[in-house]
Amino acid sequence: MDKRQKILNAATRLFVERGFQNTSTANISKEAGVATGTLFIYFATKDELINTIYKEAKQRMAESLKEGFPQGAATRDKLKHLWTEVAAWALDNSENFRFMHMFSASPFITNLTREEVESTSSFAMQSIKDGMKNGEIASIPIDLFHSILDGFLTGTVRYIAANPSKRKKAIEASFDVFWNGIKGE
Amino acid sequence: MDKRQKILNAATRLFVERGFQNTSTANISKEAGVATGTLFIYFATKDELINTIYKEAKQRMAESLKEGFPQGAATRDKLKHLWTEVAAWALDNSENFRFMHMFSASPFITNLTREEVESTSSFAMQSIKDGMKNGEIASIPIDLFHSILDGFLTGTVRYIAANPSKRKKAIEASFDVFWNGIKGE
Amino acid sequence: MDKRQKILNAATRLFVERGFQNTSTANISKEAGVATGTLFIYFATKDELINTIYKEAKQRMAESLKEGFPQGAATRDKLKHLWTEVAAWALDNSENFRFMHMFSASPFITNLTREEVESTSSFAMQSIKDGMKNGEIASIPIDLFHSILDGFLTGTVRYIAANPSKRKKAIEASFDVFWNGIKGE
Amino acid sequence: MDKRQKILNAATRLFVERGFQNTSTANISKEAGVATGTLFIYFATKDELINTIYKEAKQRMAESLKEGFPQGAATRDKLKHLWTEVAAWALDNSENFRFMHMFSASPFITNLTREEVESTSSFAMQSIKDGMKNGEIASIPIDLFHSILDGFLTGTVRYIAANPSKRKKAIEASFDVFWNGIKGE
DNA sequence: CATGAATGAGCATTCATTCAT
DNA sequence: CATGAATGAATGCTCATTCAT
Lengths: 185, 185, 185, 185
Hints:
The first copy, chain A, is mainly alpha-helical. Helix content of chain A is 73%, strand content 0%.
């Protein structure tokens, strides 16, 4: 693996384990097996490193959502697909997911990052808008919908992380709650 | 106001504004209008200060939830009460609420804190268990319920914070989604 | 006991146990059972406290040497008396003795202190000078004699502190070595 | 000269001049002409720095004692050699010697240090034991002997430091006192 | 005299970042 | 590109000392 990737991986691991402030760039370099100076060849600052991890994780997640997305299907099926995929991705990439959570709550997130990222999930948002238009789901402000969805998924994944054996059931159960709430009359 | 409280307020303000790591104890003391050493009379370490802010905020919120809680009412009304109160509290104490969010996602939270805090919302959890028993709401693992509720509320409040004018509407709308999802057959 | 004395005692105990730099005035006040400010009523600064402990200890030691000093006796008997008394005092006041040792090696000792103290043991020095004059002991520079004596006693006491059961024997043995070395032809 | 050595030298100088507690690591770095952080590359803590100075000084002294040590000679000659060498070393390295004195009386000395160091002077101790066995010197507890010797030398060196012009004479005089005391019947 | 909360200069140590090799 | 010794500003925390009560 190239050094850039080694640094990214080591940094993610350590940030999640010890938090941003308790992980020094020296820690990361050591964990990655490179010299302290090398980190700064690939990332101008520690902040840039952190933002990069976030952006790339979000991107990889978005890509995995797109795969097999049932474009023509009913809104319920589309949402179910997204639901399942997000949960799967979060559980299979728990370090990355936890990192994203930490990051969202931190003041690191720059406006630039926010914008770059939001576009990646636009295709999902489009499905929702379509569903609202044709009455398949209830009409509520799209931003509120987004926030609720985000909170919902985070809650579900956090639950599964603590109770891994109930993965399948929990995904179904929470989707049902979600769908019952969201669906049109 | 006493110095302890001044420090607590200044710290909350700065942490929310700049994050934990970008707020030095010297910054806090200055903002609070006390000497650098004074902070350490009331809080042994920076960590203890952070944990204290969290505990006290959570406590105040729990207290405001209890006021006017409709003990004998239907589960829906109880939940509606909680929903409205949490949202109100979060919006009227947005700094505290944002702090709690930051804190939950950080590695600062110690086990002690976690335990001390969890007991404060037990009365709400009891209502939910009761509702499940008598069929008013669907039966899903209580922990999952908790996680979903948490995510839901966070999402709602975050939305309202960004769109203050839609406060009333958003609270109603998100509760409807929640209730439709959660209610028994 | 009055507060001044309580502070002096507590300070001696803590200094010996933890060193000067690891003993704060707050530690001392607490150990003495007085308020932090009280210490500064009796001693203007920490340094003054330290110097006072030294002076008073040295004085008490000198007084105990004077008691029963055989003024008219042969130099050997005078020295033996001093020898025995110093050892006894050091062992019965080991905290004070250890303090004096620490103090001598530190940069705390001010010229003032040094002078005030040196006069206290002048009567012993006089005996030695007399002994040299009349040939009872060998003629070597008085300051060198003083230094040797000091080192000698310190060594003896340190040995006895580590081997308390051999107290009597050690005092005899070391005096013999000393006297054999020192005596005139 | 390498930076480690520069730091060691500067620290020794300042510690002797101003004491441990009145010498900050910043003082040392400045005196050594390096950045404040550099000190901590070579020494993890201030304590470690202090212990290192002691160990290395003691080692260098032991080495200089070994040079030209008259293995086969009479005990008196061996002791005279040690005596002369210690005095010479102490006077030529007065800063180091004074440091060792300060250090011995401080609570800095860790057990580790003590052990590591004691082995360095074992060859001298062996000579003494041998001398006692064959009656060349009086039979007294070896530890007491050690303590006396230590105190004796310290006293002598301190005297010479204060009276440099009398160096030769003082060494002879104090050794005579010592030898007359110590020698067998 | 006695108290102890408050002060703020000072300290040991850390760490993001640089740069000569 | 890669290294890692070196940098020095910044930080959390301590503590001798003061002073209003």
